[in-house]
Amino acid sequence: MDQSDVSLAGLREPLLAVDGVTLQYATREQIVTATHRVSFDMFERDRFVLLGPSGCGKSTLLKSIGGFLKPVEGEVRLNGKRVSAPGADRMIVFQEFDQLLPWQTVLENVIFPMRATGRFPRSEWADRAAAAVAKVGLSKFADAFPHTLSGGMKQRVAIGRALAMEPQVLLMDEPFAALDALTRRRMQQELLDLWAEIQFSMVFVTHSIQEAIILANRIVVMTPHPGQIIAELDATDFNYDQSGSDEFVAFQQKINDMLFGHEDTAHG
């Protein structure tokens, strides 16, 4: 890991610790190693981005943080406790638009995980759901069904549904990748606006360097398969409005050189 960049380790206790995590999954032909001894700490209110090429294991790593995949080596800890199963303290927003229940309205979709987990008293469900729908700007569509919504609106519902559960960490697996460029840009800004209001803790997976810099205060850059960490970078000084600045472009090029330089070395 590149230690020349600013590190927050030691300043406060991590909310999430990924400690030497190696992950594997089985295909019909073989056992695939997705990540190899990945370690990092994430802190409360971080906008933490896992950045790397397709197939580097970043989505698999997110599943492990979510408790859906057990490491073959190392462990994931949340508030110092080992993650061993899914839980309402970690909510995932996926890339797919069809993660909503088509027979339920927007409001009912947001209520669904509360009902499934019993996380809050039943008397609070409607108010909590309405507040979450309002935060993502969809109050006028609370009674609409998913098939009447655009892709961006569906993703806003999914984000609102996750945040309504008040998770300790919001996990986002390339949630804007399938959107058109203009909608994707708008959703990035809306996510930042929402974070500024609520200050939630987020792990965001992407293979877009520009998206990583726009959304993150901290970026972990991962190698191609099997995923290892090349560098951990501080992106605090960059925001959405700077995406055309010389400094932003230079930082983007720095990350690009890391990714492609490592790829050349690996295959040289």
UniProtKB/TrEMBL annotation:
GO MF annotations in UniProt: ATP binding
SUPFAM superfamilies noted in UniProt: P-loop containing nucleoside triphosphate hydrolases
InterPro entries found in the cross-reference section: AAA+_ATPase, ABC_transporter-like_ATP-bd, ABC_transporter-like_CS, ABC_transporter_ATP-bind, P-loop_NTPase
Keywords (A to Z) from UniProt: ATP-binding, Nucleotide-binding, Transport
Family note: Belongs to the ABC transporter superfamily.
Superkingdom, taxonomy of origin: Bacteria
Protein name: NitT/TauT family transport system ATP-binding protein
Pfam families registered for this protein in UniProt: ABC_tran
Stored PANTHER family: ABC TRANSPORTER ATP-BINDING PROTEIN, TAURINE IMPORT ATP-BINDING PROTEIN-RELATED
Record keyword Nucleotide-binding present: yes
Limits of the ABC transporter domain: 16-251
Keyword presence, Transport: yes
